[in-house]
Design goal:
Order of helices and strands: HHHHHHHHEHEEHEEHEEEHHHH
Number of strands: 8
Mean pLDDT: 85
Radius of gyration: 23 Å
Structural class: alpha/beta
Length: 413
C-alpha cells in the first residue's frame, strides 16, 4: 500500500520525545537487539522490561525499544509491551508513531486510528502530514476490509467444526444445590463481558503438541477470570469454550482478534459490551502470558497486559496478569455475600480443577457424550484432593461437591 515508514529511533536521539530522563542504556539495548536478531525474543523483552522499570518516563527509551522490536518484526510484542506504559503526554510522539506503524503492518485499522488520535491530541503541527498519511492508510485498510470476505468467526484448524458454548456462571454454581444463591446480589447497570479461550502456541506461534499442559491452562484461565468477575460489583461475565467436532475441547491456534470479537459479540444473543482474549506463548523453559481487553461496542482494543517468566514460575505470570486484569477492570474488590472470594493461591492447580469441573458440566448438560469424562471417578477424586489441599478456599469444596452430584446422576442413569 506504500505507507510503511521506517521505525523511528535507529541510532539517533528521538527529537519527538518530551522526557529525556537519564542517558540511553546503549549497552543493554544492544544486548537486547542481539537477542532479537538471534530470535531470542523472550530474553530481549526481559531486558526491555527492566530498562523501562528503571527509566519509566524516558520517551527516548520507549522509542528505541519500539524501533528495535519493529525492525525485527516483533509487532505483537511491541504492542503488548508498550500499550500499558506509553503516555504521549509524558513520552512524546516517537513511540506512538511506531505503535501506529505496528498496527498498520498488522492491518489493524482501528488500533492505528486510536494511536493517530492520541498523537494528534499533542497538537504538533510538524507531525500533521505524517498523521494524515497514516490516517489515509488506515482508511484504505478499512475500505479493503469492507469488500473482502470476512474471516471465520472462530480461528480454527482446516476442515474442523467448532461450536462455541457460553457459560454465564461459575461452573460449580450449576451442580451444587442452590449454587446460584451463593453468588452475590448485584444491582444497577451491569457491564457484560465475554472471556474467550486463550490461544496456546510455541515460539514464533508454532503449534503446540495437543497434550501440552498449556492447552489446559489456555482453556481454564478464562474460567478463573470469569469466576472472579462474577463476584465483582459491576460485571456480568461469561466464559466461552469451543467444542471441536462435537467431542473435544478446542484451544485456538491464534488469539481471537478484534474482527472475531466484533463478529461474535457486537449483536445477537451473545452480544457483550466487552471481551477478553489472549495468548500463551510457551518456550522450552519460559512462558509469556498475553491478555487483551476489547470494548466491543466501541469496536476497539482497550488494553494489552503481558507477563513473562521462567516456566517453573508459571503461577507467578498467571497471578500477575490475573491481578492486572482485576485492577484494570475495577474488579479487585469483591462484593460481600454468602461466599468470600479470594484469588486462587496456586493458579495452575485451580486450572486443573476447573478443567475437571468443565468436563463434568459439559457431560451433565449433554454438550459432549458421557465418555468424554474418561475415568470419571479419578476426576472426582482429583477434585476431592484439591478441596482437601485448599482448606482456606471456600470455593474449592464446591468443585468436588458438584462433581460428586453429577457423578451420582450419571450412575443413576
Amino acid at each position: 500500500m506504500g505507507f510503511f515508514d521506517k521505525f523511528l529511533g535507529k541510532g539517533q536521539p528521538d527529537k519527538d520525545a518530551l522526557n529525556h530522563s537519564g542517558e540511553l542504556p546503549r549497552a543493554e539495548l544492544a544486548a537486547a537487539a542481539e537477542h532479537l536478531a538471534a530470535g531470542r525474543k523472550t530474553e530481549a523483552i526481559a531486558i526491555h522490561e527492566s530498562l523501562i522499570a528503571a527509566q519509566p518516563e524516558s520517551g527516548e527509551l520507549l522509542t528505541a525499544i519500539s524501533a528495535d522490536l519493529g525492525r525485527n518484526g516483533c509487532l505483537e510484542e511491541m504492542l503488548a509491551l508498550l500499550t500499558h506504559v506509553y503516555d504521549a503526554g509524558i513520552h512524546g510522539a516517537g513511540a506512538g508513531l511506531n505503535l501506529i506503524q505496528a498496527c498498520l503492518h498488522r492491518a489493524d485499522a482501528e488500533g492505528a486510528q486510536m494511536w493517530i488520535d492520541v498523537i494528534a491530541a499533542l497538537n504538533r503541527p510538524e507531525l500533521a502530514n505524517r498523521l494524515a498519511g497514516f490516517a489515509h492508510a488506515a482508511a484504505e485498510l478499512r475500505n479493503a476490509a469492507s469488500v473482502e470476505t470476512p474471516p471465520p468467526a472462530v480461528p480454527r484448524p482446516d476442515d474442523a467444526s467448532v461450536n462455541l458454548a457460553s457459560i454465564s456462571r461459575p461452573l460449580w454454581s450449576y451442580a451444587v444445590p442452590e449454587g446460584e444463591s451463593l453468588l452475590p446480589a448485584k444491582q444497577g447497570r451491569l457491564r457484560s463481558i465475554a472471556v474467550m479461550t486463550f490461544a496456546a502456541a510455541g515460539p514464533d506461534r508454532a503449534a503446540l503438541d495437543p497434550d501440552h499442559r498449556a492447552n489446559l491452562w489456555a482453556r481454564a484461565f478464562p474460567f478463573a477470570i470469569a469466576e472472579a468477575l462474577a463476584f465483582a460489583p459491576t460485571w456480568q461475565s461469561k466464559a466461552m469454550i469451543g467444542i471441536l467436532d462435537g467431542n473435544k475441547l478446542f484451544t485456538p491456534p491464534r488469539s481471537f482478534g478484534l474482527e472475531q470479537v466484533r463478529g461474535l459479540f457486537r449483536s445477537g444473543k451473545d452480544a457483550s459490551d466487552f471481551a477478553i482474549a489472549g495468548t500463551l506463548i510457551v518456550a522450552t523453559d519460559r512462558i509469556e502470558v498475553l491478555a487483551e481487553v476489547f470494548d466491543v461496542q466501541r469496536d476497539r482494543s482497550m488494553k494489552v497486559l503481558a507477563e513473562s517468566c521462567a516456566l517453573e514460575s508459571v503461577d507467578t505470570a498467571f497471578a500477575s496478569v490475573f491481578e492486572k486484569l482485576r485492577q484494570y477492570l475495577e474488579a479487585a474488590t469483591s462484593l460481600a455475600g454468602p461466599l468470600t472470594y479470594s484469588a486462587p493461591a496456586a493458579m495452575t492447580e485451580r486450572f486443573v480443577a476447573l478443567d475437571h469441573a468443565l468436563a463434568f458440566f459439559l457431560v451433565d448438560k449433554a454438550v459432549v457424550p458421557a465418555d468424554f469424562l474418561g475415568d470419571a471417578e479419578s476426576r472426582a477424586a482429583a477434585l476431592d484432593a484439591h478441596a482437601a489441599a485448599s482448606p482456606d478456599d471456600p470455593i474449592a469444596p464446591l468443585f468436588a461437591q458438584g462433581a460428586r452430584a453429577i457423578l451420582a446422576k450419571l450412575r443413576a442413569g
